[in-house]
Amino acid sequence: MNLTISGHHLEVTPALRSYVTSKLERITRHFDQVVDVKVLLTVEKQKEKEKRQRAECNVHVKGSDLFAESTHFDLYAAVDELIDKLDRQVVRYKDRLQDHQAGVRRATIQAAGAAA
């Protein structure tokens, strides 16, 4: 898995990098066919103080790309919310993939049974 963590108007500290990496382990625990992950952490230049910290992530899995973003006044909370969103997407993608393959197997078994 290739992991890229970058910051926009923000320096990615080793503590922040290790926090994001530890949170991303949850995604790889649910689905091991993750090819590439790109995380962008941003501090937006807005007048209002709330929702200035933004985290977005592109996850390239075998066969598809998943994207999620989250904004919060605290960057760590934005990363937590981002990982929750991505985890739901990965689990849903994995379920769709497994359901499709089960349907193909059932159709193959039924076709083989009808031919015999």
Blueprint of the fold:
Layout: E1 2-8, H1 14-30, E2 34-43, E3 53-61, E4 64-72, H2 75-115
Parallel strand pairs: 1-2
Antiparallel strand pairs: 2-3, 3-4
Helix pairs in contact: 1-2
Mean pLDDT figure: 87
Structural class: alpha+beta
Number of domains: 1
The CATH class: Alpha Beta
* H/E element order: EHEEEH
Percentage beta strand: 25-35%
Distance between the termini: 45 Å
Total count of strands: 4
Biggest sheet overview: 4 strands, mixed
What ranges have pLDDT less than 50 throughout 5 or more consecutive residues? Answer: none
- Shape, please? elongated
Q: How much helix, percentage-wise, in residues?
A: 40-55%
| Strand order, largest beta sheet | 1-2-3-4
Which fold does the CATH topology refer to?
A: Double Stranded RNA Binding Domain
What does this structure look like?
The chain is of the alpha+beta class and 116 residues long. The protein has one domain: Double Stranded RNA Binding Domain. It contains 2 helices and 4 strands, in the order βαβββα. The protein has a 4-stranded mixed β-sheet, with helices on one face. A hairpin with a 2-residue loop joins strand 3 (53-61) and strand 4.
